[in-house]
Each structure stands twice: as C-alpha cells, then as structure tokens.
Amino acid sequence: MTQGLAEQVAGTIPSRLLGGYQHFRADRYPSQARLYHDLAAGQRPDLMVIACADSRVDPATIFSARPGELFILRNVANLVPSPSGRGSRSLGAALAFAVGTLCVSDIVVMGHGGCGGIAACLQMHDGVDHSADHVAEWMQEALPARHEVDRMHPGAGGDARQRLLEHVAIIHSLANLAAYPPVPTALAAGRLRLHGAWFSIGEGLLEWLDEESGRFVPVPEVAAGPA
Fold this sequence. Notes:
The protein has nine helices and six strands; from the N terminus they run H-H-E-H-E-H-E-H-H-H-H-H-E-E-E. It has helices at residues 2-10, 15-39, 59-62, 88-101, 116-122, 134-139, 143-152, 158-177, 183-188, and strands at 47-52, 70-75, 106-112, 193-200, 205-210, 215-218. The radius of gyration is 20 Å and the shape is globular. It starts with a helix and ends in a 9-residue tail after the last strand. The mean pLDDT is 93.
C-alpha cells in the first residue's frame, strides 16, 4: 500500500524536481549527512542576502555556500521597500529574525544585470493606477531610484539606463534597509554591516558597492591553481 502510494505521488511531481531530488538523495546527501543532521538542531548563518527572484541568480551558487551558511530572502528586483511601503511586513519579519534572533553580521542587497523588474520600472508612467498589475504595483518602490537616474543621467538610454537603475535601486534599498528595526540598533552597536552587490549573469562577474565613492567595483578573482 505504501509503495503504491509513493509511486502515485511520484507521478505527480514535475520530472525535473523528482530527478533532482533523487540525485540529491543518492549523491549529495550521503556526503553531507552529518551537516544536515547538525542543521536539524538549528541554523546560525552569519550572512543574509536579499536577492532577486530571478531563476538565473542563485546566491548560494554565486558564493559557493553550503546549506546553513546564508539566510536568503528573494523578491522581484531585490527591492527593500520603505518600512511603510508595499511588502514591508514580510521583509520586516525576515529582518527581525535575521538580525534580532540569528544575529547575522552582514546583509547584502544583490542585484543583477538584465533584471526584468527593473526593465518594467523603466517603462512605467507616473500618476498611472497600477493596482491591476502586480509587477508594476511592486516596482513603484523603485520609482524614486528611477527619478534619480533620470535626473542625474538625462541622456542615458537602453542598456546604460537599465544598469544605472539596477545600481541606484540597490543604493536606495540599502537606505531603506537601515530604517527597519532592529537594524539601526545593530548598526549603531557595530554588530551589523550593510553591503550592495551586482552580478553580471552573462559574464559571471560580481561587483561590490564601494561606500566612499558610491561606485560598483569588480570583485577581484583568484586565479585557479594548477590542475
């Protein structure tokens, strides 16, 4: 009876997920069984990453992280709305847990090239009711960043304007992030640092926000050793 039910359930699982899980159980889990056993007792990541929901940008892959090392929150365009803005309750709960309970030492807001949410924001018009379009309604949180880009770079267009907004939206999100409790207290006590990052999908390259200059700078690569 149990075997038959298991086979019945397996038939309802998308084949990619079923095959991936079976590979995990046969290959990856046996080599990391002790790690998962220890993680079952609780998590204690030092780092939080706020990333885009885009399927091409996986923080754990980019940073070569093992299970339990990163506390990850993903949403469309990796936005941090103002504490009184759209979706702030969900983000606020995640931050309260990450900072207040897990005591993470660093939070990274990581954007990426070719972001669909940012592209949608660039097509939006001010003063239009976006309540029927969930993507546009959410991306209104990035309009202040878009206004800054248009004001500071009036001649920018195409890919340049897209990348500028991807960068500036990260900076605006960091400013909003600093206002969520208990983030200000942790920052003042020196227990927490905030960072901005941007990932190029096609090149596989990461840029890091330099606080002093306000520029995104390529992260140095370490050459691979001899095979």
